[in-house]
Amino acid sequence: MKKSSFLSLLAVTPLVVTSGILLAQGMGGGMMGGMRGMSGVQVPADNPITPAKVALGKQLYFDARLSKDGTVSCNSCHDLKAGGADNKPVSTGVGGAQGSRNSPTVWNAALHNAQFWDGRAPSLEEQAKGPLTNPVEMAMPSLDAVVARVKGIPGYGNQFDAVFGKNSLTIDNIARAIATYERTLVSGNSTFDNFRFTDKSALSQTQWQGFKTFREVGCVQCHMGPDFAGPPPLARGDGFYQKFPLFAEGTLVTKYKLQDDLGRFDTTQQVGDEHVWRVPSMRNVKETAPYFHNGMVPTLEEAVRVCAAGGNNRDLTQGEVKSITAFLGSLSGVLPEQKMPKLP
Ligand code: HEC
Ligand code: HEC
Question: How far is the CA of 311 from the centre of ligand 2 (A)?
Answer without folding.
Answer: 7
